Amino acid sequence: MSTTRFLTGITTTGTPHLGNFVGSIRPSVAASLSPNVQSFYFLADYHALIKCEDPVRIQRSTLEIAASWLAAGLNPDHVTFYRQSDIPEIPELNWLLSCVTGKGVLNRAHAYKASQDKNLAAGREADDGVTAGLFMYPVLMGADILMFKAHKVPVGRDQIQHIEMARDMAASFNHLYGEHFVLPEAAIDDHVATLPGLDGRKMSKSYDNTIPLFSSRDQLKKLIGGILTDSRAPGEPKEVDGSALFQIYQAFATPEETEALRKAYADGIAWGDAKSTLLERVDQVIAPMRAQYEELIHNPARIEATLLAGAERARALATPFIRELRSAVGLRSLAQATTAAKPAKAAKAALPSFKQYREADGKFYFKLVDADGRLLLQSTGFDAPKEAGQAIARLQREGLGALAGHIAPVEGVADAQVSAALAALAEAAA
Ligand code: TRP
After folding, report:
1. Side-chain half-sphere of 62: how many Cα atoms within 13 Å?
2. Do residues 183 and 209 lie in contact, with contact meaning Cβ atoms separated by under 8 Å?
3. 159 CB under 6 A from ligand 1?
4. Would you state the pLDDT for residue 7?
5. Which one of 5, 6, 10, 69 would you pick to mutate in the ligand 1 pocket, going by the greatest count of ligand atoms within 8 A of its CB?
6. Ligand 1 neighbourhood includes 150 CB (under 6 angstroms)
7. Residue 260 and which of 2, 18, 137, 398 are 20 to 30 A apart at CA?
8. Residue 173 has pLDDT above 70, yes or no
9. Is residue 158 a part of any domain in this protein?
10. Per the confidence metrics, is the pTM higher than 0.70?
11. What is the rounded CA–CA span in Å between residue 185 and residue 154?
12. 347 within a domain of the structure (yes/no)
């Protein structure tokens, strides 16, 4: 039975909140327990540097996030759980991928474009405050994913474009250097709820409306007390639609319990009582994990050891793979024979090619360009596309001499260059 490999990264900025738990931690831990699945979860601390320049916060957040995932039941014996910065092969792969990724592709990344749009809207220069790290974010993410040959990458919708980019990087590399990478796919779980925060907007650090996952019970009570409600009095029927309180409850309760609260809303439950109901239900889920979390967070050396053990397992795959990739691109021992055959695809990628097109004069033309797109040969106009095609065929069969009169000279290109290009094409076709 073949196994599917899942991989996902968690950026180590900030403290996990209930929204992270419901949207990411809980479903990921559950998925890691299914059979025929291999899971790789890692702390994306290199990515964190793009958003956060506070070393203490980076370290603290790495600790808190690791402790949260472990407390929530992630089993490091079943899952490869590691820290990105413990895998030096990842930044190395980042460079190899940078060299096969179009700059224009990165220009179109949503996150980068959003920064630019914000700058322009504020009357600043488009790239104001944009680091090269932010610009390169998708490539580093591609390295994370491709390094471990992940099939599926569970992410939020906002990350789909990054997975598509990783796929394109893998395809470009494979095309140039032979089949080395698995083409990954995003895995989007539509059943996972986005949790509203205290003010009813999506729970997010950027809105400052979160409930930390491992608040003490007292803190939890205080925060839940602050959830925005309307002004309906006890006894007045209440709306579940748009009620943040109800939605958070639903994410922690069984369907039966949710139905019971829906009915209580209709029957006019007092907001204070609804909040107590929510507190008890959330605390019931969190309390056992909280005990675990406290124990872990006070034992950072144990977490460190867990992460290093995970890194060792990850590197057992990464080290030989990067060796293979280095060799594929030509970063090889000089003692090795240099005549080793190029992979067929690389040869193909470097070939000249014919391009056919129609000009404004209505006539049909072709040209021959080298692998870098430089013009080698230019035809005169033909009345029909078929004639242009036949001319190309004759040229390939009989050589340059066959087309005298149908070729416009290209400045600076010798006939010998054209003949060499034709010979290369013929050889590749043979
Ligand atoms: N960019 C992801 C996020 O912000 C985190 C991340 C980094 C990631 N590398 C990854 C996710 C690789 C999946 C795979 O959520």
Report:
1. 27
2. no
3. yes
4. 96
5. 10
6. no
7. 18
8. yes
9. yes
10. yes
11. 9
12. no
